[in-house]
Amino acid sequence: MPATTPEQIHRSFENRFNAGDLDHLMELYESDAALIAQPGSVAQGSEQVGAALQGFLALKGRITLETKLVVTGGDLAYLSNTWSLRGPGRTASQLLWAPRRPRWRGARPTATGAM
User: Fold this and answer.
1) pLDDT tens, 12-27?
2) Residue 91 belongs to some domain of the structure
């Protein structure tokens, strides 16, 4: 189900990630989006962002996101959360995921900007 408000983005990401659905995860990103998958490493554009997300999906873990902040102004929103990824034999880790400029076109959310 597509997110229709900024507050629904994290849950949508979580559901798509836990389903192992890269194609639907990528629907949340603009083609020129950037993702910091590791400190000091920025994936830019659909191909690199998809490869970075595929690396996380390959861990076969379950992600949990906890929204910390949502600030909206017009058609822009800032989202911040902590997340943990749990899997067989793995411990949880927490990082901050904070897209700068999620935008909505109708009922389909897309995220743009450095994370």
Assistant:
1) 999 999 999 999 999 9
2) yes
